[in-house]
Amino acid sequence: MRVLVLGIFVADATYRTPRLPRMGETVLGGAFALGPGGKGSNQAVAAGRAGADVTMLTRIGRDAFGDMAERVWAEAGVRSAAERVEEATGSACILVDDASGDNAIVVAPGAAAGVDAAFVEAHRDLVRGAGIVLTQLEQPVEAARRALEIAREGGAVTVLNPAPAAALPAGMLGLCDYVTPNETEAEALCGIGVASEADARRAGARLLEMGVARAAILTLGARGALYNARGASELVPARAAGPVRETTGAGDAFNGGFVAALAEGRAPLDAVRFGNAVAGISVTRPGAAASMPTRAEVDAAMG
To answer: 127: part of which helix (H) or strand (E)?
Structure first.
């Protein structure tokens, strides 16, 4: 089953520091790295490395960062359906706390800001022909909504990773077979703070009431992922593959692994386990796209 990812690519400029600065403060950092990023691109790379047949739909510039995007997709086995335009490719500033692995991120989407509803409509046939469509909220929300609508018309499985956190238009959750928020994103969607597993179950149930068709899957960091379907709720433990080095891209790793598993016919709960394994490896490595494991590594981790 073919996977289509609608999202953005940005070049990640990552700065490692002993601690994150407070507002107005300058701190002396450590290592610096420049590499590929953007939630949609990271998820496509994760799915491609996990063995899925993936196409990436976005806009990138005719510049060195755009060349970087095409190169990383090719290396991961991801087909490019990117429009190359004269605007600059986007970039992101990522600050990583060396002590905890936590991060703070600012994204400037650049060319990808043009991934709007009209852009999606222009690629209707590509979206409609996919077996699974995965999107996020780094591009304008109307683009994500239109992609989900067209995917539904074509009979595709629809997956929304509602990141970064944002309010959604009425009815948009009803276009989603699966929604995959973290704690912050779940609260933004349904108004329920997720401080405990019980809270996560309530939030998952509320998202189903709001229209999610098959399951709300809350990613809970080191606690794992809570799978909430009608009549079923199960906490799937995280799969630790070693000491945490950096959490940047962990959610993207989960989502890419999840759709890759769905695409090969795994049951949803097993796909959650597979996504956890992909994420569990990714956090042991620095970087976003660069941290995504191969299928052989995931299979070995799952035993």
So the answer is: helix 124-128
Sequence-distant (6+) residues with CB within 8 A of 247 are 101, 102, 103, 221, 283
In 3-state terms, what secondary structure has residue 97? strand
- Residue 85 sits at φ, ψ, to 5 deg, of -130, 175
Helix/strand/coil percent split, the chain, to 5 = 40, 25, 35
Distance (Å, rounded) from C-alpha 59 to C-alpha 265? 30
**What domains can you pick out in the chain, each with its CATH number?**
2-9+38-89+113-302 (3.40.1190.20)
pLDDT tens figures, 124-177:
999 999 999 999 999 999 999 999 999 999 999 999 999 999 889 999 999 999
Hey, what amino acid is at 280?
Answer: G
Q: Which two tokens stand for residue 53?
A: 């047949």
In the block, which residue shows the tokens 């929604």?
179
Compute the distance between CA of residue 102 and CA of residue 98 in angstroms, rounded to an integer: 8
Catalytic residues: 252
- Residue 32 CA to residue 149 CA, distance in Å, equals 40
CB 135 within 8 A of CB 142: no
- Residue ranges of the chain whose pLDDT lies below 50: none
Task: Name residue, tokens 């939630």.
Answer: 39
19, 27 Cβ separation under 8 angstroms: yes
d(CA 73, CA 58): 12
